[in-house]
Amino acid sequence: MRIGSVFSLLGLWSPSERANQRDADNRIPGYVLEYAPFVHLHSSEKFWPCDIAEHLEHVTPYLNYTPMAPASTNLNLTNLDELNEYSNGRFVYLTSDDNVEARPDWLEGEKNIPEDPEELHKTIAGHGLPQRPLGTKDATEIHGGRSDAPAVLVVVDKGHGVVDAFWFFFYSYNLGNLVFNIRFGNHVGDWEHTLVRFIDGKPEYVFVSEHFFGEAYTYSAVEKLGKRPVVYSAIGTHAMYATPGSHPYILPLGLLHDETDRGPLWDPALNSLTYKYNHTSDVLLASNLTPKAPTEWFFFNGRWGDKFYPIDDSRQYEVVGQYHYVNGPLGPRFKHLGRKKVCQGRTSDPCAVHEWLPPEHIQIVDGVGKGEDWKEDERDPPIGGK
Known about the structure:
Layout lengths: L2 H8 L4 H12 L3 H5 L3 E3 L11 H5 L2 E5 L2 E2 L24 E5 L8 H4 L12 E4 L2 E4 L20 E9 L2 E13 L3 E2 L2 E2 L3 E13 L2 E9 L2 E6 L5 E2 L2 E6 L6 E2 L3 E7 L2 E7 L4 E2 L5 E7 L4 E4 L31 E2 L2 E2 L29 E2 L8 E2 L11 H4 L7
Parallel strand pairs: 1-15, 7-20, 13-24, 17-25
Antiparallel strand pairs: 1-19, 2-3, 2-4, 5-6, 7-8, 8-11, 9-10, 11-12, 12-13, 14-15, 15-16, 17-18, 20-21, 22-23
């Protein structure tokens, strides 16, 4: 236990000293924003970034398939963790009040398309598309747009000079990809992230989440605008990549492709909820940048979307164990924030770090049409830096 924690428990700190200690614990280093990533959303995207607070206005908590409260219940970011009182939240699903196949406006998030600097973009298909070749170095004056949907920044100090900055991006709907013209892997709620790992205040690695896996790169390898990394969000699935183009991966049924391009350029640093997280004590603090940001929602143990629809639901089908609709995702606390390796995944998984942007390659994956889940011993937040 830290000396400061002992003093606090013994009541030996004055109120001002306690406030100073909190300020020290919740302060985000300046270099985190200095190297914040830009995100290119796809120019033909239909499901844009969404505000997690607004998402809660359109869902009702269900215990598996049973509603827990009327739709009028005031579910919000300050009380979401109270749902853990039911089976520790394990079987709680934030279920859409609308038929998602009707594509209600809140699900699509079109109003949250980032605003792009007018003088640097031309209009293509109704959205700004930056005209800039891959690998441009002298781009310090180019800035992305602000989205009304706040990103979530969680900064984790791992000690020994290692600081992880997790940038989380939320979408109210994930549109799965097609296999032989059959779509698999739709779900309500979608959390994606990019991690920038700093060592002694310098960016060393960048990780981008892709479905149940992801890719890690050295900071020097990735594309940048000025000194800030540039990442790409795939159309529909929002899987994240380091390059634009086609990204094939394999399911048991055949070959799928994620597609990325230089669509609207999003600067998440312009609007985000920012936090410091202690992964060993499981304590989250609103940072000095957004000191009034609510923290309770972070500890919700359930799913941010519907439970997979039963097979007798007209919206559901299954082919060779792959489903049209799968479970909504777990929240950021369950994304292995205490990881030692920069990669996401189980502690036993390998972690290859690329030192250059690789040519097109194929990922082999099992589970995109099954839904996100970890083994029981891997599901809980990785306390103790596991």
